[in-house]
Amino acid sequence: MLAAGQRLRRREDFAATIRNGRRAGRGALVVHYMQSVEARTEPAPRAGFVVSKAVGNAVVRNVVKRRLRHLVRPRLADLPAGSVLVVRALPDAASQRYDILESDLDQALAAVQRPRNRGGRR
């Protein structure tokens, strides 16, 4: 379980992160990341999870959410203060092994935190 200060709860926070943040998809996960402008008011990094009905029934969705929470909890400490992370599970997340989900999450987090290329696409 994530601490209360580490959880995203409001719909507006989820929507703002998905709309305005950086996105990276790897395997069965899509990670949305946004560095908050209000870092002084929100010192702790926060995380939220989106697991739709396409992933499976309620039991399967809850298992996927628990696995993702367990994977994200230690990684939150590495994020800068005021950052917001939304992890969205794709339908394949229900059938993925734990170590593959972990690898997908690490790769996606590295991708969204990588500095942007200012020279444009090549």
Automatic annotation (TrEMBL):
The EC number(s) attached to this protein equal 3.1.26.5
Q: GO cellular-component terms in the record?
A: ribonuclease P complex
Please give the SUPFAM superfamilies that the UniProt record associates with this protein. Answer: Ribosomal protein S5 domain 2-like (SSF54211)
**Is Cytoplasm among this UniProt entry's keywords?**
no
Q: What class of enzyme is it?
A: hydrolase
UniProt-listed GO biological process terms: tRNA 5'-leader removal
- Catalytically driven reaction(s): Endonucleolytic cleavage of RNA, removing 5'-extranucleotides from tRNA precursor
Keywords from the UniProt entry:
Endonuclease, Hydrolase, Nuclease, RNA-binding, tRNA processing
Task: Please report which protein family the annotation says this sequence is part of.
Answer: Belongs to the RnpA family.
Q: How does it assemble?
A: Consists of a catalytic RNA component (M1 or rnpB) and a protein subunit.
Function per UniProt: RNaseP catalyzes the removal of the 5'-leader sequence from pre-tRNA to produce the mature 5'-terminus. It can also cleave other RNA substrates such as 4.5S RNA. The protein component plays an auxiliary but essential role in vivo by binding to the 5'-leader sequence and broadening the substrate specificity of the ribozyme.
Protein name from the UniProt record: Ribonuclease P protein component
Which gene is the coding source of this polypeptide chain?
rnpA
